[in-house]
């Protein structure tokens, strides 16, 4: 396991080489599916790239399996989860023709939460230099993370000079005080450790961990949305996570431990059928709005322990709607309340739904009514070579993980949290040269 993790921060990946193509592998360990994607990231000319993008994503390998040993995004059976990860990775390796050694992993468990910090340092009227930016970023990270939680992301969302806020790049500007706003995303440490341990038991290194809604936003949002203000709601199997983007920055994250699997459980209990049958009924017939024909249309339901031919009973389709709708309303109302409590409800006036559970018939209309704002379904954008099975909302998160290496350099890591062992780092000339070589190449 990474030595950095005990100090409250997950491993961080190195910046992408600007003039060389690289192969990147990602792993999305969810409650309903485990997906492994392999892509070749090719550098593009600065004028041809989107904002904050430097490479073209070309998918070369996909592998996905039904999830095992995972509940609400957390590992609950190490052996079963390890086996499912190995199968997904093996399928991706065979398709891509490469051997995967390290992966970028998404996380939706661990009660994702956001904190915002502001820090200032004096600059005495001289033009802002790189060392001033390093000083203020260091000050912005000088906060205490709550016990048993780990820092997943540490992102500067804006600089300030004296009374001027929202400065994107203060280099060369003058003022008396340089400030920075830092967005810190944290998660409970134990679920992250177990997730990393499970991946490492598959003989894979964890390059970094990315919050699932942040990854989905990187793939499903267009630039104008993230600039004007948008809320991305990633409806997964075991969790529904939220990411708010404003001014082109990821500014808030939250999660509720309810998702599409809970709808399946409700159907299984309400119709006295198996989970597999409930999942089939949800996929084929579930809706959140009743239709006039639902009372007349009969659906075959196989009770638990019966076979499809002899034991099937027939129920009106309206019964499925009556079971599904209350749970979906509960999830959306929780999202609405969390968004209101965050203080970003007025600034993120659009909503993008993504994740496999957002594909229920009529869900965008229901979300539009409960959240009281425009809603659309978000599908993965910005990647070439996606097969048809990976073009839906369920794959926005994995595709976003492939985009993440291009924006990983925006994050700031407190060097003090990255020390190994309990002693202070050495600062001789040789060690300084060694650190420079590690950071530069």
Automatic annotation (TrEMBL):
Q: How does the UniProt record describe the way this protein sits in the membrane?
A: Peripheral membrane protein
- Signal peptide positions are none
Task: Tell me how this protein assembles.
Answer: Self-interacts. Interacts with FtsZ.
Species of the source: Methylopila capsulata
Family statement: Belongs to the FtsA/MreB family.
Q: Name one GO biological process term.
A: FtsZ-dependent cytokinesis
Highest taxon listed in the record's lineage: Bacteria
Q: Which GO terms describe its cellular component?
A: cell division site; cytoplasmic side of plasma membrane
Task: Name the InterPro entries on file.
Answer: ATPase_NBD, Cell_div_FtsA, FtsA/MreB, SHS2_FtsA
Q: Where in the cell is it found?
A: Cell membrane
Q: Does the keyword Ribonucleoprotein apply?
A: no
The record's listing under HAMAP family reads:
FtsA
Q: The SHS2 domain covers which part of the protein?
A: 24-220
Q: Which UniProt key words apply to this protein?
A: Cell cycle, Cell division, Cell membrane, Membrane
Is Cell cycle a UniProt keyword of this protein?
Answer: yes
A Pfam family (short name) is: SHS2_FTSA
Q: What does this protein do?
A: Cell division protein that is involved in the assembly of the Z ring. May serve as a membrane anchor for the Z ring.
Chief localisation class: membrane
Protein name per Swiss-Prot or TrEMBL: Cell division protein FtsA
Q: Which SUPFAM superfamilies did the record assign?
A: Actin-like ATPase domain
